[in-house]
Amino acid sequence: AGILGILTSIYFITSLLSSFINNASAVTLMFPIVFKIASQSEYSIMSMLITLMIAGSASFITPIGYQTNIMVQGPGNYTWLHFFKFGLPLFLTNAITTILLCSFIY
């Protein structure tokens, strides 16, 4: 799959975990896996770690992914569908930008 496939996998798995558990916990769970992949491949560990860090903070799709999402859900009368409709384009834009920049810069 190459570096784009590896970075895409790291990003989507980490951000999926980050959507349902704490951001720090998602990164902590994924770090040993990413480190093992980086040490066994010829690709830059820096690109994988930066992708991991950014994906850990990309919890835009669910209201339980981040504290402020939960805080604004009640007063704004937001539903899960609102977070999905507005969070998905932001998530995809962030994912594409992160993966492409990390693969070319590092």
3D structure, described in words:
This protein is mainly α. It contains five helices and no strands. The chain has helices at about 1-20, 25-40, 45-55, 65-75, 80-105. Helix 1 (about 1-20) packs parallel to helix 3 (about 45-55) and helix 2 runs antiparallel to helix 3. The longest helix is centred in the C-terminal third of the chain and has 26 residues, at about 80-105. The chain is elongated, with a radius of gyration of 15 Å. The mean pLDDT is about 90.
Briefly characterize the structure.
The protein has 106 residues and is mainly alpha-helical. The protein has helices at residues 2-18, 23-40, 45-56, 67-73, 80-105.
Q: What does the main sheet amount to?
A: none
**Strand percentage, roughly?**
under 5%
Shape: elongated
Task: Note poorly predicted spans.
Answer: none
Helix and strand composition category: mainly alpha
Task: Give the radius of gyration.
Answer: 15 Å
Helicity range: over 70%
Mean pLDDT: 91
The total beta strand count reads: 0
Distance between the termini: 17 Å
Number of helices: 5
H/E series: HHHHH
